[in-house]
């Protein structure tokens, strides 16, 4: 059993002393006076004292004592020998009799208060392991947790084989416990339904399990109806009523992952105690996922038609403008006659009908007359052309999905109920008492005109379109929510409850440095605003410079001049680049694994640990297949590894969570490199979107003529000032990037203390400005047309202009401090919910940004955000060094965009994955390869710089700070890919690195 988890050499390592870190050396191998008295009583020999002290220090460190005490780390033995004032060589004579070591271990356990692994201790361990096995199924993780538990319980660890057997017992017991907790769900009827999921259904030509797992490829009427059919099928099985709360969340996640990856045949081969919990979990999760998919596709399909209508409206307006040129010319001529004071009133008519204008021109103008446009310029009328298309799927969506909301959505929800009834009965006429209060003013005219003319068909069309658009907008803002949904749930569910917030308020305020008292908080913010405006006042008072006022009192902001990179830095980069070795990308990944072990982060999704000797080779091939966009088929042809093996490795090992862990390992390694701290302190980061074309249909792909010939998507990446990419997210190219700015910052798992974040204009909203400050962070964007944004003041206009004669007139609006104060605690609770991981930032930011003024919390947050934006703008405009610093950071992100494009070279850089999950995994593979290139280049730049310094060259850190590792001149991405780990490692020198090249040579 143990050898299935650990190979023989691994088991042997678990019995021996590991390497020791500097921290562990000082923490565990420092003897107190009491310890010295224990190990060195009168008459005890030097070797015995040294051996006993090794046992004394090793037990708290490892939780056990290896049999061969003399093989303890030499630095640890030397430290103990120095404290005991004995010779290190004395340890060689210790432990020749096994009884001596056993007796000494017994004395140490008594002295330290430890106990052997007896029956009671092992029973407690089994209970602990069962609880953890219900959360995690990985045997290696459970083994590590067991070791940590035994140390905390002061129990001497048994042998690794015995411990692995207890882990295996706990995993088997967890499987039985899982089945027992769900046993009430496994009625004969339910088991029959679950087994039927694995049989091929002749109607759809596949198993229902595979059918449920196959997501839509586009937001079309057909796709919406297909997802509605899935939803009705799941509800027919009662999937929406299954309660899995009896299982830990991690257990549910594990079972769902297994269900998604196992084939129908693989599940059929599993015994019922394992098969049924997996299928039930997949069924319950699918009920939520498909419901979210239906609502999302409804939103996307309606929005697509609305966008198409807008483009049609613009074309119509352009055509209307061209045909109206003659009438405009006539109007100009008429006004010239009518407004001429020299022409008498009695002469005007003759001039218009006669020599100046003429009847022919007047009659032509009357013939060209067109009806006046409604307030929306015909947008809703253009959408009416898509009414038949929308009717293909909207009745099914309204029938299958239930909606709820607050008081702001009362009339809209009543209208949805009326529309649902009309669809069910087939009635065509909208009842006279149907709600219309939810209809925006710009569209109300359509209903009024249709009602006055008695055109019930037109009224039905326009009223129904208003209902659908209102429902879409309500779902986006959170005014309308969907019971049972995860993505469209009640916004209140995303926040900490009042009781939870009561317990965590003080801790949150301490973490972010914000007072709970709104009066204190706003007083400090007002002072900060006045200080910032005062700095801007000094700049504007000078009257010259890049930021100044023109003669009309308008703000003038001259663009920053290009940053001058010192010639010395350019020459230094060229010299260092010549010294770097050439390496194929596969060699780089192999070499980096020897120093970081990042490939060990790729664990089996099913919890299996047995790793074949070829696993690392296969993983590298899969990572490169996705990072370079070759794909598994072309990679199999390039490297000689079979496609089936690569596909299996990708399915079970390469997923977002393992890619994130491996990426984190590389970033941690990069952070520890000497050169990295010269690039930046790691406190500043930036984010930006990068567009990639797509091939084939995908729900994330959109047409954007500025970037793509056809369709494409965006990857939104977060980059530190040390050139490391710590976050990647695939988003729809037409969505606002600002919604996703906070996601990776709050989820940042690196050790980097990020406190400031830069974006371009796309990452800026008032909501973001407010949330960043409430979270104790600084948002520092580079805003296009900064001089045109609205700036806010805290006091009266007269007072502000008196205090700040130059800057004061720029503050055109007064901030609503009372609104902010009234909702200050709710604003803190909102930020606290994000800080403590209770909600996803992009979800909340999107809803808050879409909320109208009637949402008091959103309005208060936007007011506070406007205040913070004013403070930032004043500081930004006052300090050219600050502006340049932000620009420099954004340029680092752009350089990494270029490197990613170099990497993703195959198939013209077009992403061919169609599902969001596959696209996300490919984006993370690209990020991992990018960070690997950055870490490798940084490391070798550092080695080359040190070699120059040893030769007597003076190299200043200020010069090295201008050298970016985001380049690929020394790395080959192309050609045949041969993944031969042993051959690559043989090319490294004894220090573990490739030899630097001699300058002015090719090798």
Helix content: 55-70%
What is the gyration radius calculated from CA atoms?
35 Å
Uncertain segments are none
Largest sheet data: 6 strands, mixed
Structural class: mainly alpha
Walk me through the topology:
Layout: H1 2-5, H2 8-14, H3 22-28, H4 33-39, H5 46-62, H6 74-84, H7 98-112, H8 119-133, H9 139-152, H10 160-181, H11 188-196, E1 200-201, E2 206-207, H12 208-213, H13 221-236, H14 249-261, H15 264-268, H16 272-323, H17 325-338, H18 345-353, H19 359-367, H20 379-383, H21 387-390, H22 394-400, E3 404-405, H23 410-425, H24 441-453, H25 456-477, E4 480-481, H26 498-512, H27 518-542, E5 547-549, E6 555-557, H28 567-579, E7 583-584, H29 585-596, H30 615-627, H31 631-639, H32 643-653, H33 656-671, H34 676-679, E8 684-693, E9 702-703, E10 711-720, E11 725-731, H35 741-746, E12 756-758, H36 766-774, E13 778-779, E14 791-793, H37 797-803, E15 811-814, H38 817-822, H39 824-835, H40 841-850, H41 856-878, H42 880-903, H43 916-950, H44 957-960, E16 971-972, H45 981-985
Parallel strand pairs: 7-16, 8-12, 12-13, 14-15
Antiparallel strand pairs: 1-2, 3-4, 5-6, 8-10, 9-10, 10-11
Tell me what you see in this structure:
By secondary structure, the protein is mostly helical. It contains 45 helices and 16 strands. Strands 8, 9, 10, 11, 12 and 13 form a six-stranded mixed β-sheet that branches. Helix 5 packs across helix 7 and helix 16 (272-323) crosses helix 25 (456-477). The mean pLDDT is 89.
